[in-house]
Amino acid sequence: MNKLFLVLIFTFLGASAFSQKDRAQAEFKEEVYNFGEIKEDGGKVTHSFSFTNSGGQPLIVHNVRASCGCTSPDWTRQPVQPGKEGFVKATFDPRNRPGNFNKSVIVTTNGEKPTIVLRITGKVLPKEKTIEDIYPRKMGNIRLKSSHLSFTRIAPKEVKTEELDLVNSSDEKVRVDFEGIPEHLSIKMVPETLNPGQEGKIVATYDASIKNDWGFVVDQVYLKMNGQSNRRNRLSVSATIEEDFSKWTDEEMAKAPVIEIDDRVFDFGEIEQGKKVSHAFMIKNNGNSKLILRKIRASCGCTAIQPEKKVIEPGESTKLVAQFNSRGMSGRQNKSVTIYSNDPKKSTLLLRLTGSVVKE
């Protein structure tokens, strides 16, 4: 019996070993390839990982998946017979990807080891930046880093200064002036005249107390070149005007107003095109001082806002009636109403009107 048991064990082990050897198996000559240093503007680079099917059955590469869109793979599509070779290619695009990289290529086969991870590594040397790269926005004979000058956040009574870099990209002198400057903004060119190739700055100062507005606001200013006007030379100047409550004490916060709204989303369902629908949002002050609705702004002109009052005493409520006009609209609609208030925790609150407009 013991001899019979041993014979059965060896037979099983031999069959198992034969079965494993009989399966397809991809043996790669290398699983990691280092491209070394490559140039960002030198174009795509490709490496072919070659493998041999060391098993006893045809090897099928089911899929090859790269870890990012910058790496595009290719591979042997036909079954690889035992003892024959196949390949998996990895192509890397270094454009806009300066610095070190380490990307994986996941290979899925019918082999004994069904998943194999290959890697390509290297370092992308950044391309030398041109004047177009540094100053991408062109206006006449000058180029700017941006056509948008942002003051980001600014307090209601704050005066803030920001700068925007530019360069004279022409072969002649350029004097830069400005027109359409609003009262709350002062803007100048430093220096006023730029020699060919010379860099300069637009220096702008924003007075929020003169602007006397709330939330995100945008103004348009126009650049004149050597005294000539061109409405295409437009510079957008933006700011988000809001109170800074970060330095308030616990006592001040305890005395603050608290805005509460019963439901911030109203779904008007389906309405016929050309019809109007209204909804009254109920606003309550659950705080300990007056709630002031600084500003109410709709996302489009099709939504009219009619607040009953803008100053709400503690414990009191008011209605904010929003009316949606579906004229010229069709399909699913999502409109918003933004409320700016003196609630230190919810100074900006968003309401929504949703629904569908159907044609008769």
TrEMBL record:
Q: What is the lineage of its organism?
A: Bacteria, Pseudomonadati, Bacteroidota, Bacteroidia, Marinilabiliales
Question: Which residues, if any, are the signal sequence?
Answer: 1-17
Query: Which InterPro entries does the record match to this protein?
Result: DUF1573 (IPR011467), GPX_AS (IPR029759), Ig-like_fold (IPR013783)
Concerning PROSITE patterns, the annotation shows: GLUTATHIONE_PEROXID_1
Q: Which UniProt keywords apply?
A: Signal
Q: Which organism is it from?
A: Marinilabilia rubra
Question: Which Pfam families does the record cross-reference, listed alphabetically?
Answer: DUF1573
Asked if the keyword Signal belongs to this entry, the reply reads yes
Q: Answer yes or no on keyword Transmembrane helix.
A: no
The protein's name is: DUF1573 domain-containing protein
